[in-house]
Amino acid sequence: MRTTRYLGLALGLTVAAGVADAQDRGTIRQLGPVVAKSTEPITNNVTIRPLASGVLVNDAMKRRVIFFDPALSRFTMVADTTPETGNAYPNRMPGSLIGFKGDSSLFFDAQSLSMLVIDPAGKIARVMSLPSSQDAMAMGLQGASYDGRGNIIYRAAPFPTGGMRFGQGGPMHLPEFPDSVPLLRINMATRVRDTLAWVRVQKIKMEMTPTANGGMSMTSQINPLPIVDEFAVLPDGSVALVRGKDYHVDFVNADGTKVSAAKIPFDWQRLTDEDKVALIDSVKAARERMLAANPPVTLGGAGGPQVSLGGAGGGGGGPMINIQIGPGGPGGTPGGARPTPPQMVFVPPSELPDYKPPFFAGASRVDTEGNLWIRTIPTKAIPGGPVYDVINRKGELVERVQIPVNSTIAGFGPNGAVYMTVREGDNTFLQKASVR
């Protein structure tokens, strides 16, 4: 019973802990019926671009962009790493997909410093250069959005300061990563860049250990309950900043004015020291199962450092980052063999917050009406699937919506369509539902 109880905590359920400032958050309604589901499996970490003519899917784990018809019954390949599509998908790092003018889309390729313009029929129309080569990684991996006014909005990469250095007769000092980064806006025509706001991100802490072949392995500590901010670009071109510390929304309007909304009602759940220890133990087990089913994405080429990104999940937190450097081949392994996956390293329990945060990174989506949908971390056991807070343009909680079990909202399409990924056994599929 004890193990089951704390595994529930790791998956976002409740423990017998005190609840501070419990508030009325309203009733929960069910999402509308599922009307279509793909027969082609995809992976969990996809981004989509819903269109009237179908839906584009960036399946980064499989290194492909595919275009489903409206019924999700057929698909065509837009970009992958095979000669048939001109090797349009980067083979060393994931790309990212965002909406662009009208029903066109942009696919960011940080590896080649370019953007593919994909037309409404799912065809590559032309290639553009990235507006900022120095921010290629941030646009490609951190997430970006087009504001409809000629600007791309994105978070800066959390670059470390100090760098690695050796102490005088002492250990190596690892770089320090920031806990907040600027939210940037760059004009695609003029290349002028400015800062809209600052957002809180998960602070990365690295540990270094020697490898068996004489190289070095640097692994990030996993924090299963980081307090972070989310951002989203709304249909009117404004930017919503969802603050994780006290759960409210700051708006940066298209004309530059800023408005801070009131706090959103939330049942803040306190975590005891015992809860924190048990949570880390349970999340570790959940992540081990997840990594066994979804191997880490590997970046880097032969002869250089190899970077592995293990997916987030099983209690939240960012991906596990591992960098292996040494002689012999990729990642320092003889003959170019892949290195042995590193052991997961977690932050000390004392570094977890005293109250469970309202959401994890990547929890926000925007519907076609400009409402924010925030996948919340439950503070009490609720039968069924995940629950989303729906927040309007004034920053007010207007309703709570529950979606099917093992599903995650990926985006919203025309005519009240909601697209979700659904996990069924070892496979994940794309499904389409009605918002009501």
What does this structure look like?
With 436 residues, this protein is mainly β. Strands 18, 19, 25, 26, 27 and 28 form a 6-stranded mixed β-sheet that branches. Strands 2-32-31-30-29 form a 5-stranded mixed β-sheet, with no helix packed on it. Strands 3-35-34-33 form a 4-stranded antiparallel β-sheet, with no helix packed on it. Helices cover 8% and strands 40% of the residues. The two termini are 38 Å apart. The protein has helices at residues 2-10, 136-141, 273-293; strands spanning 19-20, 28-30, 34-37, 46-51, 54-59, 64-68, 75-79, 96-99, 105-109, 114-118, 124-129, 144-146, 151-155, 165-166, 172-173, 180-187, 193-200, 206-210, 216-222, 230-233, 239-243, 248-252, 258-260, 268-269, 297-299, 306-310, 320-325, 345-346, 359-366, 372-376, 387-391, 397-402, 407-413, 417-424, 427-434. Helix 1 crosses helix 3.
